Amino acid sequence: MTLCCDSEMSLTTVDRFPPSEMVLVEMYVILAITSLFFFISLKMLKRGSDINNCFRKMICTGKSVDPPLSTEQIYNILRNRFNPSIVNEKWDVIVIGSGLSGLTVAKILATAGRKVLVLEQHDRAGGSCHTFKLDKYEFDVGNTSKMLKSALLKSKIVKSLHYVQDMYPGKELYRICSAITDSQVHWQKMEEPFDTIIIGERYYGRKTGNSMHFRDQLKLWFSEEADSIHSYFDFVLKCLNINLWWLTGVKHLPLFFVRLLSKFSLINFFTNLFKYCELNLIDVMKSYGLSDDVKAIISYYFVNYGIPPNRASFLQHNLFLMENGYYPIGGAAFLIASIVRSIQNFGGKVIVQADVQEIVFNSGRVNGVKVKHGSFEYIIQTSLVVSTAPIIKTFNELIPQNIARNSVMFKRVNELNSLETVPVGGFQAYIGLSGTQNNLRLPSNNFFWYKNSNPYEFDHYLSLSSSEAMEYGCPAQMFICFPSAKDPTWDERNPGTSTCQLISIANPAWFEEFKDTSKKNSIKRLNRAEYTELKHVIGELMLSQFLKLFPNLKSHIAYVEFSTPLTQQYYMRNAYGEYYSLTQQIDRFKLKFWSELRCKTDLPGLYLSGQDVLFCGIASVLYSGLITAGNILERNLLKDLKEAYNEQMDCDRK
Question: Domain 54-189+326-407+601-653 belongs to what topology?
């Protein structure tokens, strides 16, 4: 691919892709057919907006009429345990997984009158947004949270809940969260600068603002590169100003039609979107002659989607740029409990300790799910299942293989998964601190620490052996945050304590030999002494670097625990302990794969939702839940939400 460094960033492979070896008449015929299908599909996507608008039954304005949940209520709501007697009936819909995507689907369908059952394998609801306690310290699960520019609305859109963008009145994501929680949850804005980038010992504080504000900050920090920085962001703006509808639109078009668009490169007559998706982030930055430090700062938030700039999609990276940061008052548990209570109020149930072993089919159609509870298995009947489990797990484990192999998605998903070049596992440190936020002067913003500005350092670290990793020092990058400092109600729930989380990476292969393979899913470790040594050496290296940045906290550390890719794999049931199940490499965003990662499968009665359908992150899974529910109800739910919100706001003003 040829990249030119002028201000227009003319990409010879991006600006024009005339179909090769096609007769002109054939091209016009195919274009005519393409246009016809395009407009028919677009019309179908716009159905809705009559009296069946379920959002009219929700409180979408952010102004709740109910009292907030107590700590005891939250505890009980999130722990409604499986019992055969309470699920022994036929359900309209069963949702596998109680993360934000599954709960969003469940809330919308329950409000629309469907009889909905949500099944969660763990002992509390919430998926990647649940909270837990170690000793007396409260923690979130622990992946960095993110936002992306919405593919649905041409404006801004975020695994654990560390920060969220645009959670204030007037923003669409705020309306979605208000609707699914019945406006129980409110949001605290993070202090400035909301993100601090640390390269070695150099600090750069990024303040609230869009990509143009980010550009101006970079020009102040690196005035000698101002022209190159400006040109780079001109190209960013050009790319972001295209019609982003296609990111979700191609997932609704008939597959044979999308394959036609792909085979003859006809998609490029409609949009340049997928050309920009296939650009490599580091290649684009290099083409403008940017220094390593500037490239490192531009790409600092790549940890939010887990792929370094040398393997990242240029467009995806720019969609993920956060403009601001908010945190739910009351924490992630309050957010999840508010949604679960609302589902219950509309007749649905959210059940935990319900480990779905199989999606049951009869004559090729969904007929129920098989749940393991203790030493017994139970079949719960339904004609419609929504799986929010990792898509690889869904097709390779939950669906009987004689059924799964009949799906075109089975082949495509496994092909995409095989393209993962460097597996990235999660490694985290959970730190309990004695003292309050005020006493310890803890910041509410996030810190992104990098060993150096080498864009290939991330992959270099992962290429090491486990013994080399122990000698390397702190991992190549580390995300640092203080969840207790983000929530103004923290001290009420956890007096005299504070918390910190360090989030980093590890090669899953370092820990593979310690995995107990005698059971399908076991927390038992083989050669525990060696496992513990490896875990603690890497963890202590992270802790040592953390204390170089925050030396005043050394005497206040009261508790430390480390988690490895095996921990992540056990609790999240993913392939090898990754933060995000399906690869985030450029291949994912090629039309061939992206168009087939859709919520409605070709197996009758089976739908998908969650991060594998769109992007990873909180905002994406919320939109994913909305899209899945919209497909089931055959409605444009964003349009419904906007209408209901406007009606309720008009009523409030009277």
Answer: FAD/NAD(P)-binding domain (3.50.50)
359 with 376: CB under 8 angstroms? Answer: no
Residue spans of the domains in the chain: they are: 54-189+326-407+601-653, 425-572
C-alpha 416/C-alpha 274 separation (Å) is 17
Q: How many CA atoms lie within 13 A of 314 on its CB side?
A: 26
Distance CA 174, CA 150 (A): 13
Beta strand 446-450 with 195-199: parallel, antiparallel or unpaired? Answer: parallel
**551-587, pLDDT tens digit by residue?**
999 999 999 999 999 988 887 777 888 888 788 889 9
- Dihedral angle computed from the Cα positions of residues 428, 431, 437 and 439, in that order, rounded to the nearest 10 degrees: -150
Whether 416 contacts 582, CB under 8 Å: yes
CA dist 439 → 134, 433, 481, 482 (Å): 22, 11, 17, 14
pLDDT tens, position by position, 45-72: 455 446 789 999 999 999 988 888 998 9
Where are the extended beta strands (E) located within 232-347? Answer: 326-328
Q: Is 4 helix (H, G, I), strand (E, B) or coil?
A: coil
Whether cis (ω within 30° of 0) applies to the bond prior to 551 is no
Please give the residue that has the higher pLDDT: either 109 or 529: 109
Tell me, what DSSP letter sits at residue 396? Answer: I
